[in-house]
Write a structure and sequence with these properties.
Elements lengths: L4 E3 L1 H14 L2 E5 L10 E4 L10 E6 L2 E5 L1 H7 L2 E8 L16 E8 L2 H4 L6 E2 L2
Parallel strand pairs: 1-6, 2-5
Antiparallel strand pairs: 2-3, 4-5, 4-8, 6-7
Amino acid sequence: MISRVDCTDKAKELIETLKTKHGDLMFYQAGGCCEGTQPQCFKKGEYYLRYKDVCIGTIEDCEFWVDKDLFEYWKHAHFELDVIDAIGAGGFSLEVPLGKTFKVNYRVFSQEEIDQLEEVKINL
């Protein structure tokens, strides 16, 4: 099966740092303006999922959720979580106090990959 989401080594290192400090984590990407355009990292359970939000997979044992409308737009794309040394538009994500911002690099799946994609989980 083909994963819909993975991360760079730099993102893995930051996730481990954040897990050591905060415990279990989750990611959420909305797709709206400002901080909604970048993935947000929260302590697991501290972001309330909305009806039909979609979990596209896990990164380092952390669920990666996206808004249902964003999923419809990007369901044929692979998400690669990365990190930049800057403070992004939002201030709610756990990496911000470290002067970092998570970002996603996208690429479109090939038809062969689409035929082998992992199932998603939908919040009902």
